[in-house]
Amino acid sequence: MSAKKILVVFGATGNQGASVVNAILKDPSSAAEFSIRAVTRDATKPSAVTLSERGVAVVQANVDDKESLRPVLKDAFACFAVTSWEGIYDKEKEIQQGKNIADIAKTQESNIKHLIWSSLPHVSKITNGKITGVLHFDSKGIISDYITSLSLPSTFLHLGGFAPYILQMLTPLPPSPASLTDKKSYGMMLPVTPDAKLPIICIDSDCGVYVKSILTSEKLPTKPGTVIAAAEGWYSVTEICKILSEAGGLDVSFTQITPEQFEEGAVAAGMPRFFAVDMNDNFRFMQEYGYFAEEALAEGHKYLTEPLQRFTDWAKTSEKVKALA
């Protein structure tokens, strides 16, 4: 019996990496083909210990320390790589972290056959410098360009908006005196029009579906820089509010606000001002250019080996939604 292929999964205890681990382990064919090497910053935390108890090899490494990544990637067949913007809020630091992973993946002792990089559209490049403030998108796009320059066999997974993050856009509202329901009321107040569309992915389940499909699909080219747009579907903000209301049991309404109102409201709620500016430019990009091309989403669906979770079904069953009801 031939040895299993080593699949390195960065961020294995986060929502993306954990989704990849779960997708591989629950599928007998994939579990038989791949041995997971799960990377975490702290191998002693409960989520990492749980992975070990499931038979996953857990290794500790720091993406800021390039040399610590050598044993992590040694003899690996494939790698799912992700960095955590929320953990650092630093564009240049995130770029360096991604480059560290790519540099070691390129070495002879690693010789990675397929690097799957969790990326995002390079907004400054796409808009020809018109929109330059979406730092957490551009950092990942710059890393993608660097990976391509190394001629690594790679796929760039452009993930849509995470379903759980939609809930962070909701502001509690007092119940309307005229309301005929006892549902809790929330407002979605954003600097976009009601018909602005967002591609949504149920990240906890479907990041793993995409990665597993990429690894096992015979249709997908493994040339440097293959891009997969990853989301279940497109939803206008009006449709999002309707689904959270009808399927999620909430009372959600949408209000279009100005970029200035959004920035000040976000800062008042505790968001760093530079990131509020980042998000403002992010919504502008979504409104004027689209998160990514609609046809790209359908193209990515062609490679899937199993169905994605529908946003409506997620809203019905999510414990995070129920906690708001």
Question: Can you offer a commentary on this structure?
Answer:
The protein is of the alpha/beta class and 325 residues long. The protein is built from 15 helices and 13 strands. Strands 3-2-1-4-5-6-11 form a seven-stranded parallel β-sheet, with helices on both faces. A three-stranded mixed β-sheet has the order 7-10-12. Strands 8-9-13 form a three-stranded mixed β-sheet, covered by helices on one side. The chain is globular, with a radius of gyration of 20 Å.
Please count the beta strands (DSSP E, at least 2 residues each): 13
Q: Kindly estimate the percentage of residues that lie in beta strands according to DSSP.
A: 15-25%
Structural class: alpha/beta
Question: What's the shape?
Answer: globular
The biggest sheet amounts to: 7 strands, parallel
Order of SSEs, N→C? Answer: EHHEHEHEHEHHEEHEEEHEEHEHHHHH
Give the CA-CA distance, first to last residue.
52 Å
- Helical coverage, percent range: 40-55%
Rg, alpha carbons: 20 Å
Average pLDDT rating? 94
SSE topology sketch:
Layout: E1 5-9, H1 15-26, H2 28-33, E2 34-40, H3 46-53, E3 57-60, H4 70-73, E4 78-81, H5 91-106, E5 114-119, H6 123-126, H7 135-149, E6 154-159, E7 161-162, H8 163-166, E8 170-173, E9 185-190, E10 197-201, H9 203-216, E11 226-230, E12 233-236, H10 237-246, E13 251-256, H11 259-268, H12 273-288, H13 294-301, H14 311-317, H15 319-322
Helix pairs in contact: 1-9, 5-7, 11-12
